[in-house]
Amino acid sequence: xxxxxxxxxxxxxxxxxxxxxxxxxxxxxxxxxxxxxxxxxxxxxxxxxxxxxxxxxxxxxxxxxxxxxxxxxxxxxxxxxxxxxxxxxxxxxxxxxxxxxxxxxxxxxxxxxxxxxxxxxxxxxxxxxxxxxxxxxxxxxxxxxxxxxxxxxxxxxxxxxxxxxxxxxxxxxxxxxxxxxxxxxxxxxxxxxxxxxxxxxxxxxxxxxxxxxxxxxxxxxxxxxxxxxxxxxxxxxxxxxxxxxxxxxxxxxxxxxxxxxxxxxxxxxxxxxxxxx
Length: 277
Hints:
Elements: E1 3-9, H1 16-22, E2 29-33, H2 40-46, E3 50-53, H3 59-69, E4 76-81, E5 84-85, H4 88-100, E6 105-110, E7 112-116, E8 119-120, E9 131-136, E10 144-145, E11 148-149, E12 158-161, E13 166-168, H5 175-195, H6 210-221, H7 227-238, H8 245-276
Parallel strand pairs: 1-2, 1-4, 2-3, 6-12, 7-13
Antiparallel strand pairs: 4-9, 5-13, 6-9, 7-8, 10-11
């Protein structure tokens, strides 16, 4: 298949081998490493990947930098994080989609199976959530949103879907690592919420497009009291996270904690700015 793979990494020695082995079928794999200190780059090079170092500012910025400066060999590019992996079924579906793509197709969205304690979070993580991860160079760019990126941003053409999912292992480095990352994410979310309030577009709450509907619900949720409790209820009851067993309860609780961190940090920032005036 004529396609390049870009993998974003930072101290991912635990994950990089699994990710790279899952794309061993690709003849052009680039790891964009944010100056790892755990041997991530060395492992990647031993497995045949090209490794370049570039400071991480955001996921969207890092992916766009790779598109512009990564020396990629092919027109189509699959973007992965180091804690993700492609399955053989995904590879076959992706190959068929790219082969059938016409000139109007600028990108493909994919979905992820998120894993916790060996359990697929089919319900509590809201599967399927579609995110743009396969792009045609020169026809699509990634766009920042909060600590992450816009799931499916505007592109020069149309965005189709790869039906088979990739697999996501966000807890592969342990709960402490997950909490450390989300402590950082919550600080950024709190600052963004305080500096730029996004208006609620009420019709979007019932839009058939899942990405638009989730964005509208997120904007509404930022204005409601008891945000952590509502986040838990949304994921555990509304999304039927209880069907994921103990993993679903754990994940829903963690996301409620994340919401609480955002609320408390936003209040702290607001009070600090008020005293500085």
